[in-house]
Design a protein that fits this description.
This protein has helices at 48-56, 76-91, 109-119, 135-138, 152-166; strands at 2-8, 14-20, 28-34, 60-64, 97-107, 147-150. By secondary structure, the chain is α/β, with parallel strands linked by helices. It has a single domain (2-166), classed as Rossmann fold (3-Layer(aba) Sandwich), CATH 3.40.50. Strands 1-2-4-3-5-6 form a six-stranded mixed β-sheet, sandwiched between helices. A hairpin with a 5-residue loop joins strand 1 and strand 2. The longest helix is centred in the middle third of the chain and has 16 residues, at 76-91. It starts with a strand and ends with a helix. 35% of the residues are buried.
């Protein structure tokens, strides 16, 4: 795993991105990992075992830190993800990734963020963080491949609501 600067926040701190180089000649399909944590916890290292497995299979994996809910309300984490897609499209080739083959995967709340981004990649609320000059023209927040989301919390909530309504 190699740490790279993702972006600097308004607070002056940085949210670092980590990428795991895939093995082989490349250019590699690239995946953006959006961590879970109920929008309140965890960071880019939460899915490191999965990231390593994907990298070993020939995929460039980039995991980014998302703004947590206590730091800033919605849509801050979706803005981070949208910026992450655009940033990754601009940077993927420098890590031997293929910017035309970018996907997203997210676990739990990261999956929810991936779904929101997938539904509205060009939403002005989500495109609020500008890229460096010149890169913006080449990159939008759209994913032209696939987004994979693990929505266990949504299924659990649905089961709870169904159980409550069935017992009435």
């Amino acid at each position: 795993m190699r740490e790279v600067e993702f972006r600097r926040t308004a607070k002056g701190t940085h949210a670092d991105g980590a990428h795991l180089p895939a093995v082989g000649a490349g250019p590699f399909p690239t995946v953006l990992d959006l961590h879970g944590g109920a929008w309140n916890g965890k960071d880019r290292k939460a899915e490191e075992p999965m990231d390593r497995a994907l990298a070993a299979s020939g995929v460039l994996v980039v995991a980014i830190d998302l703004t947590l809910a206590p730091e800033a309300p919605y849509p801050a984490c979706v803005q981070d993800a949208n910026y992450g897609v655009r940033w990754l499209k601009a940077k993927a080739a420098s890590w031997n990734g293929d910017p035309s083959k970018i996907g997203i995967y997210g676990s739990s709340s990261g999956g929810h963020v991936a779904e929101l981004l997938g539904m509205r990649p060009r939403d002005p609320r989500y495109n609020a963080i500008p890229l460096a000059r010149g890169a913006e023209r080449r990159c939008d927040g759209g994913i032209h491949r696939h987004a994979v989301a693990d929505q266990q919390h949504v299924r659990a909530l649905s089961r709870t609501r169904w159980t409550r309504s069935a017992s009435r």
